[in-house]
Design goal:
- This protein is of the alpha+beta class.
- Among the domains are: 2-97, Rossmann fold; 123-192, Dna Ligase, domain 1 (2-Layer Sandwich).
- It contains 12 helices and 23 strands.
- The strands form 6 sheets. Strands 12, 15, 18, 19, 22 and 23 form a 6-stranded antiparallel beta sheet that branches. The chain has a 5-stranded parallel beta sheet with strand order 3-2-1-4-5, with helices on both faces. A 4-stranded antiparallel beta sheet has the order 6-9-7-8, with helices on both faces.
- The chain binds adenosine monophosphate and glycine.
- Residues 218, 233, 291, 295-296, 298 line the site of glycine.
């Protein structure tokens, strides 16, 4: 079967690496991919949101399955587009339709979904420009810190944690009145701040049954000790020691099952990944957010621990017989260190020549923001390379990934050396 994978980040590199190993995969296409994905298949110049161009490509190249990496095409309805087209409707798309993608595309939707289904999450209220004054008064009665979230997709930047009333009121005005995050902040969710440790849980579902993929912890801040600005993610580890059997049972009983049930109750036939970002608050899981895709850089730690044929699992989603498929998970630990461009997550330069990739000893190198330029691999984004090592324990995995990260060079390379240290 020919498979088309949409996306270009480290997540898609890990997907491409894993899918290319499948007995079901004859030709893999990655659109648009990066300088690394060409090693697993063929990069094609297509925008993941250009559905008409994707249609043409899929039909011309006998693509038998489309796997969607990022959320944007899903929220924009790529799966619906396929189902509504006579020529495409029998080609499975892995990822929810626009109705299910609202779990990520609208925080107001996802909060209401959780409330309806008694899924534990922080208390919250939504406000628009028409209820700005109510929002400002609501903040006066709130505890601090408080969390302000743009309702829509804001490229991971739409969440603000405000320490004081003044700051929160200023930001609320900026979001609702001055469109700080554009259309995405035309509705704002004001949410209770939860104190605890975060965990990323991944579920694959065919709309009937589900499988829980390996969990991971993501390190979001730019600086050592998890300080400084928020990024897309600076590293990840899997498994996560506190996500033991007892904790994961709570996650399954209180969050995963009610989520799958709630989707069915809403007649949302969801086929794809559900990424549950949660907070462990004193031993109890609370949902911070849903995403309708896999995490990045979590995927780079999660997929190397999956021993089963990944495309076989995706076929289980497509054919709605996931329950018959085997998910075998390695007991080893994976650690991912993200190499980023100096200045990231603020402004940074692109086009720096990367050297030393072939010096890596015992890690995988998953390309993220890279591009080929006259046969040279150059930086082409803020997050540039993900280095993943899989070892017998967390300490060795982190140690190896950090050591290998040090073997790569470009002008302005930066990475965190403390990934996973809070878990030792
Ligand atoms: P998100 O963009 O929804 O992933 O949120 C970004 C980050 O904000 C999360 O990873 C958390 O670290 C933090 N965050 C979001 N909601 C809350 C909350 N209710 N309490 C504490 N931290 C939160
Ligand atoms: N690493 C968090 C995310 O993918 O949203």
């Amino acid at each position: 079967m020919n498979i088309l994978l949409l996306g270009s980040g480290g997540r898609e590199s890990a997907f491409a690496w894993k899918m290319a190993q499948s007995k079901h995969c004859s030709q893999l296409f990655i659109a648009p991919g990066n300088a690394g994905t060409g090693a697993y298949g063929k990069n094609v110049h297509l925008k993941p949101t250009d559905f008409d161009a994707i249609k043409e490509f899929v039909l011309k190249n006998q693509v038998g399955m489309v796997v969607v990496g990022p959320e944007e095409p899903l929220v924009k309805g790529i799966h619906d587009y396929f189902l509504e087209d006579e020529d495409l409707k029998n080609i499975p798309v892995i990822g929810p339709k626009a109705d299910g993608a609202q779990l990520e595309g609208s925080k107001t939707f996802s909060k209401a979904f959780m409330r309806r289904n008694f899924i534990p999450t922080g208390a919250s209220h939504s406000f628009t420009i028409h209820s700005l004054n109510e929002g400002l008064s609501y903040l006066e009665t709130h505890k601090f810190p408080v969390v302000l979230k743009a309702d829509g997709l804001a490229a991971g930047k739409g969440v603000l944690i405000c320490q004081t009333l003044e700051e929160a009121q200023t930001e609320l005005v900026a979001m609702l009145q001055d469109a700080k995050f554009g259309e995405a902040s035309s509705t704002v969710v004001i949410e209770e701040f939860l104190t605890g440790i975060e965990l990323s849980v991944f579920v694959l579902t065919d709309g009937h049954s589900y499988k829980i993929l390996p969990e991971a912890k993501d390190y979001k801040r730019i600086g050592e000790g998890d300080t400084g600005l928020n990024t897309g993610g600076m590293g990840s580890v899997s498994p996560v020691p506190f996500a033991n059997e007892e904790f994961m049972k709570k996650v399954e009983d209180r969050i995963i099952q009610p989520t799958i049930y709630g989707l069915k109750a809403d007649q949302i036939h969801y086929k794809g990944f559900i990424f549950i970002g949660l907070m462990n608050v004193g031993g109890d899981p609370y949902v911070i957010e849903y995403n309708v895709r896999m995490g990045d850089p979590e995927t780079e730690s999660v997929l190397p621990r999956i021993e089963s044929d990944f495309v076989e699992l995706l076929l289980g989603v497509a054919k709605e017989n996931l329950t018959e498929k085997e998910l075998k998970i390695s007991p080893k630990t994976a650690a991912t260190v993200m190499l980023v461009a100096s200045g990231y997550p603020g402004e940074y330069l692109k086009g720096k020549v990367i050297s030393g990739i072939s010096n890596i000893r015992s890690s995988y190198v998953f390309h993220a923001g890279t591009a080929l330029d006259n046969d040279e691999v150059k930086t082409d984004g803020g997050r540039v390379l993900a280095i993943t090592s899989v070892q017998d324990n967390l300490f060795n995995a982190v140690q190896q990934a950090v050591t290998d990260a040090g073997r790569i060079y470009w002008d302005g390379k930066y990475f965190r050396t403390d990934i996973g240290f809070d878990l030792f």
